[in-house]
Amino acid sequence: MYSYVVAPLPVTYTSWLGERRGGEAQLEWATESEEDAELFEVQRSVDSGRNWSSVGEVPAMNRSTGADYKFTDFGVPGTELQYRLKQIDFDGAFHFSDIITIEATDNAQVLSVWPQPAPAGALQLRAAGFAGHTASLYSITGRMLVTFPLTGEIQPLPAADLPKGIYLLRINGERGLTRRILID
User: Exposure string (b/e) for 153-171, b if CB count within 10 Å is 16 or more?
Assistant: First the structure.
């Protein structure tokens, strides 16, 4: 014979919302009750939930009557974003919220590069609608440094060996598009 102990979750959510405001994502959530909750770790994914990174923490108010929370994620890429909350208890146990999605900006449907600024090996890009095309990276003086194929999905920018500075990324072809990038 088995017996089960059913314990209530430390946090009961009543809402979990997010929206894009310029280059920021404004996240808001509310709880109905909280018990033994230490903090909320806000996590973001830019690749449809395959990989998650922590973008900040918000201390839990730990109120039996619940609470309202806000968090702003600054300098977000224009691509579609997913967010989830990792609610961590005082004893180290954790629970994930549902995932919310914030749609891409109109210009992000074409070309996004992030984070900005960033070290050379950390840059990612997405050129939606340009799978099979090529892109070229130029120095600020106009010298072509590298040409590479575009996948139309999130991919690393091949700039690992470049020194700090300002560069231009150009999508080649009839609908050519150029973005300035900063390697820090």
Answer: ebeebbbeebeeeebbbbb
Query: What would you measure as the largest C-alpha separation in the chain, in angstroms?
Result: 76
Give the Cα separation of 154 and 176 in Å (integer).
19
Q: Is the pTM of this model over 0.85?
A: no
- Give the Å distances, CA to CA, from 160 to 60, 131, 146: 39, 22, 11
Q: Residue 119: name the closest of 89, 163, 150, 152 by CA.
A: 163
List per-residue pLDDT tens for the chain, 184 residues long.
Answer: 555 444 455 688 899 999 888 778 999 999 998 988 999 999 999 878 888 999 999 999 999 899 999 999 987 877 788 999 999 999 999 999 999 988 877 554 467 787 877 787 888 887 777 778 888 999 888 899 999 998 878 888 888 788 888 888 888 876 667 788 888 8
In the chain, where the domains are located: 13-102, 110-183
For 13-102, give the CATH class: mainly beta
Beta pairing class for 124-126 and 177-183: unpaired
**The residue type at 19:** E
Tally the C-alpha atoms within 13 A of residue 46's C-alpha that lie toward its C-beta.
Answer: 23
Per the document, the length of the chain is 184
Assigned CATH class of 110-183 = mainly beta
